[in-house]
What we know:
This protein folds into three domains: 1-54 and 193-287, no CATH class; 66-114; 116-187. It has eleven helices and six strands. The protein has helices at 28-36, 41-50, 54-63, 68-84, 90-114, 171-181, 194-197, 207-220, 232-237, 250-268, 273-293, and strands at 117-118, 121-127, 131-132, 138-139, 143-149, 155-160. It is globular. The relative contact order is 0.14.
Amino acid sequence: MNNEKPKPNSPSPEAHAPTQPENAYMQPEFFERLKQRGIEYERVFHIMQVDVPQNLLFFARQFEKRTIEELLQHIESWKQFLKQDYVLTEELKAEVTRWVRMTEDFVWATIRDANFQIGDWTLYWFLTPPGEAPDGERITSGVRVTATNQKNGEQRKHELPGYRRSARRALSDDCQELYKALGLFDQLWLGTAGPFLISRRAAQGWPVYSRMIGRLYDVLAPHYDSGSHYSEESDRACAGKLERPARYSKDLLEDMLTILRMHHGTFFEKTTVKQLKARIQRLLSRKSTQRTNTP
């Protein structure tokens, strides 16, 4: 299977259900203030939640440098162990089995999120409408996946019907059936996302959050007054320097920090305005240097 690095920056065709911003309901005046500045919070929300590869990020945090393929092999060894074990009580064995299945489903959700692009194939996932069985029991939504070859236009499709809530199917089984039916199972990327999302720095300095801060700044900055702006002359004068003039105000920094804490409070709870400012300066300096070096 393919272990080349993924492209975690690319937004997924299918978005996860984002989590509700922490304490958002307690700050209606904050959202009203952003609205008065002309800021569309839908764009902010997309940056903070939808564009963040949630499963890949959790996988990277939980398992660090281990590959997805290693996790699948480890899970399989646990499943074989549980089949042969005669020491654990049936109750304990059932509990461990449940946790192994939950972990396997999570790993396959990560595989799905990392493989919207498989070689020349682009995959689109759609939910089909839920239904009702003759006896009145609810039937969940099914899944339809369309794979399109970007080179020759070939299309492949496979659909899984919904299931009774009393007869739930495992996500791991569904994903494996879908990828095999599409003929793409052996091409799945099963590497490690860690180096592209996290690092040994404090969490707010991880690549995934650096990209988030940069995009959030780009969206918000035009809506705030600033007494300092970039120019080609200042870019040349400051080339190679870490600290340089930036076009932001205290209000912008404070509002950015509020947004970061609402959506990712665990990682930005102790971040200060000064630290955020330094992070933005480094990002902008890097962008300026890249523009200077581009022919």
